[in-house]
Amino acid sequence: MAAVTEEQVLEALKGVSDPDKGADIVSLGMVSGLVVKDGNVGFSIEVDPERGPQLEPLRKAAEAAVDNLSGVLSVTAVLTAEREAPSSGGGPGGGQGQQPGPQQAGPQQAPQPLAPGVKNIVAVASGKGGVGKSTTAINLALGLAAAGLRVGMLDADIYGPSQPRMMGVSGRPDSPDGEKLEPMVGHGIKVMSMGFLVAEDTPMIWRGPMVMSALQQMLKDVNWGELDIMIVDMPPGTGDAQLTMAQQVPLAGAVIVSTPQDIALLDARKGLNMFRKVDVSVLGIIENMSYFKCPSCGHESHIFGHGGAREEAERLGVEFLGEIPLHIDIRTTSDGGQPIVASQPSSDHAEAFRGISDRIWSKLSTAGRAMPEIVIE
Length: 377
Ligand code: ADP
What we know:
9-stranded mixed β-sheet; 3-stranded mixed β-sheet; 2 domains; globular; alpha/beta
């Protein structure tokens, strides 16, 4: 079966009309960021922000038109509303607001603060998947919330969004004004994730501009309100998509999560270098699944040795923020939508996460980024 080409995709999309404008979406210049790779197709449809919510049928029709082509294995279309950024009141709180405009081709527009009420955005990243990045991100977010801060969680892991499950939140976000989405709320934390917007079994093939437009939409078109800190659960790895994201989102800092093996394999170092390349300060490294803690007797087994991460962090010139053991309670709670910092706040594990989140906040404060005082319980 011959692989589908960009031309064929565009030709198919010419058969899809904008219901209000009476012309096809290609001629109207609404299709952008088209990527065709090995039968997997992705593109964005640019729409006016106020029409976004009504255009889901258009998005579906565009996907269906492409899906009908022979040689297409998967199609992902996202609506983007970038032409007229919604007006944003007030200035940024803590140094964000000068980020460049979107990368997509389109009319020029003045740079807009992506989330004007959010004072600090911190990325939680990892060199590869499966190291516990999402688990760490949510427990750190909950640690920050436990300290009295207003916290948001942006699940930017668009390839495999896991925050809806980890936070035990499901459903679709509302848009009362038809312009901005209301974030969902789990355990007192505002959250937005592709997992709320796209069916779970939808294959997600994202490349450069699409990743950015999805992320920007989740920042800009969501009513985040005033937040002291937003944790961004980054996609795993250190490829182009992650690099662009690190570059385009106004990050106050980044935290790298790794396992002892990961440190040994230098994946963590790649993550570190990625942020350094784009001048984002790395607040530190967290070693997850650091040692095995027996749930029956509490005995600690240092299966992969001990102290490697701390030494490596020192060598790399970054702070070692702490270690989290491999423990069944951490897995069952986060996979069950009740992360340990929320469900077992007096456990040692919760304390370990809170110790790290307190440290992160104090680093942001001393760097002059964080505004309110931390409230220690
Ligand atoms: P990533 O975001 O890096 O892909 P996840 O946070 O989704 O990783 O974690 C992968 C799996 O490992 C999940 O099932 C999670 O519950 C489990 N897990 C993460 N950290 C720990 C830990 N410290 N102890 C036990 N299980 C963990």
